[in-house]
C-alpha cells in the first residue's frame, strides 16, 4: 500500500514538526511573554524546563500503556489534551495559570513518543531505518527553521502565534490519525504494561545506552532553554539575529546526522558514542577558555555549540538505536522509558543552568558540556567490564 505508507510518513513528519512548537518556536517570544505576564525572563525559561519534565512524566505512562490498549486511541487523547493546554495558554492572563496550562500541554505532547512505536510497528528492515533517518533529518530542518518561524509569528501574531499554529497543526494531525491509523496490536499485551515495564527497567544494557543519549540530550536542551537569556540578554541580539544563530545551530544538527551516518558504516556503537562525547567535551573546554579570556562575543559561542551539536547527533542515534533494539516487541514501553529519561535529564540539567545569573550562564553551559563528556566516558569505560563485549 504505497499511498497509505506515504500518508503515514507525512503523519510521522507532522508529529515531528508539532514537537518543535512548544519548545523551539516560542523561544524568540520569551522577552514578550515575560513582559506580558510581568515576570522575569528567567521565569519564562522555567516554563520550557517544566514542559520537558511534564512530557517526561506523560511519556512514562503513555508508551507502555499503548502496548496494552493500542497507539491510536492514546495518540488521539494526547492530541486533544495538548490542544486544550495550548488554548488555555493563549487565553490566560496570569503567569501561574499559564504554567498550569503549559503543564497540561506537556502532558498531551507526551503522546509524541508513539511516533517511534509507530515506526517500529509499521516498517521493517531497511525501510524502518530509512524512516528513522528521514525523521531525524526532518527534525534537524525543523529545529533550524523554528526560531525564524517564531520571529515571524511573534511579529504578526504576537507570542500567542506559536500556540495558535500548534493548535492548527494538532487538529490536522488528529484528522490524519483518524483516517490512517487502524486498531493496532493491543491484544498481545493484555497481561498489563507493568510487567513489561519492569522487565525493561531491569535490562542494564538498555538503561546504560539510554543514559548515554540522556547525557548528550542534556547539552542540547540546556542551550535551547538558556539561548534567549544568553543571546538576547548579554549578547544583545535582536529576534531576527537570534533566529539566524539558531538556523546555524539547526544546520549543525543536520551535519551531525550526515557524520553519524558515515561513522555508523565504519565504527562500532561504542566508538561512535566515544567520538561524540569527545566533541562535546572539546566544545565545553573551548567555551570555557573563551569565557576566561575576556568578554564573550558571538563567535566564541557559535563554534563550541556547533561542535557540541555534531557530537550530540552522533551519540543519540547510536545509543538510542541500540537501546530500543533490545525490546522490539515492547516498542511503546521501550520508547517511553528512553524518552522519559531523556526529558527528565534534559529538563533537570537545563533548570540548573537557567537558575544561574546572566553573567554565569555561558560558564554553567560550558561546565555542563564537560560534565556530560566526562560522565559519558566514565560510563563507556565501565561498559566492557559490565557486559563483557562491545556491541
TrEMBL record:
Major localisation: membrane
Keyword Transport: no
Protein's UniProt keywords contain Cell membrane: yes
A Pfam family annotated for this UniProt entry: MFS_1
GO cellular component, one term: plasma membrane
Ranges annotated as spanning the membrane: 46-62, 74-93, 99-119, 131-149, 161-181, 206-228, 240-261, 273-291, 297-319, 331-353, 365-387
Compartments where found: Cell membrane
Protein name as it appears in the record: Major facilitator transporter
Organism: Pseudomonas putida
Upper classification of the organism: Bacteria, Pseudomonadati, Pseudomonadota, Gammaproteobacteria, Pseudomonadales
Amino acid at each position: 500500500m504505497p499511498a497509505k505508507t506515504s500518508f503515514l510518513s507525512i503523519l510521522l513528519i507532522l508529529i515531528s514538526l508539532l514537537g518543535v512548537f512548544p519548545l523551539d518556536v516560542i523561544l524568540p517570544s520569551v522577552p514578550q511573554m515575560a513582559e506580558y505576564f510581568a515576570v522575569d525572563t528567567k521565569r519564562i525559561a522555567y516554563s520550557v524546563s517544566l514542559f520537558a519534565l511534564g512530557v517526561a512524566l506523560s511519556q512514562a505512562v503513555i508508551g507502555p500503556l499503548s502496548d496494552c490498549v493500542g497507539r491510536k486511541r492514546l495518540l488521539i487523547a494526547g492530541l486533544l489534551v495538548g490542544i486544550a493546554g495550548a488554548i488555555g495558554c493563549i487565553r490566560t492572563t496570569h503567569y501561574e495559570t499559564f504554567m498550569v496550562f503549559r503543564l497540561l500541554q506537556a502532558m498531551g505532547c507526551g503522546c509524541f513518543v508513539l511516533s517511534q512505536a509507530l515506526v517500529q510497528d509499521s516498517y521493517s528492515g531497511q525501510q524502518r531505518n530509512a524512516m528513522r533517518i528521514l525523521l531525524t533529518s526532518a527534525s534537524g530542518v525543523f529545529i533550524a527553521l523554528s526560531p525564524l518561524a517564531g520571529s515571524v509569528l511573534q511579529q504578526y501574531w504576537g507570542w500567542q502565534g506559536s500556540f495558535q499554529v500548534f493548535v492548527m497543526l494538532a487538529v490536522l494531525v488528529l484528522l490524519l490519525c483518524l483516517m490512517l491509523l487502524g486498531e493496532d496490536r493491543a491484544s498481545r499485551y493484555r497481561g498489563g504494561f507493568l510487567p513489561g515495564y519492569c522487565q525493561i527497567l531491569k535490562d542494564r544494557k538498555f538503561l546504560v545506552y539510554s543514559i548515554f543519549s540522556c547525557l548528550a540530550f542534556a547539552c542540547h536542551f540546556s542551550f535551547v532553554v538558556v539561548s534567549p537569556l544568553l543571546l538576547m540578554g548579554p549578547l544583545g541580539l535582536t529576534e531576527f539575529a537570534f533566529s539566524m544563530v539558531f538556523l546555524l545551530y539547526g544546520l549543525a544538527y543536520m551535519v551531525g546526522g550526515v557524520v553519524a551516518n558515515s561513522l555508523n558504516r565504519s565504527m562500532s556503537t561504542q566508538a561512535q558514542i566515544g567520538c561524540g562525547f569527545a566533541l562535546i567535551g572539546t566544545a565545553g573546554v573551548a567555551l570555557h577558555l573563551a569565557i576566561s579570556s575576556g568578554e564573550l562575543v558571538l563567535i566564541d559561542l557559535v563554534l563550541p555549540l556547533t561542535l557540541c551539536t555534531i557530537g550530540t547527533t552522533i551519540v543519540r542515534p547510536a545509543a538510542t538505536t541500540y537501546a530500543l533494539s533490545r525490546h522490539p516487541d515492547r516498542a511503546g514501553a521501550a520508547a517511553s522509558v528512553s524518552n522519559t529519561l531523556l526529558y527528565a535529564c534534559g529538563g533537570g540539567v537545563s533548570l540548573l543552568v537557567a537558575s544561574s545569573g546572566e553573567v554565569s550562564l555561558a560558564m554553567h553551559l560550558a561546565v555542563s558540556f564537560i560534565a556530560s563528556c566526562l560522565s559519558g566516558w566514565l560510563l563507556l569505560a565501565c561498559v566492557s567490564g559490565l557486559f563483557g563485549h562491545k556491541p
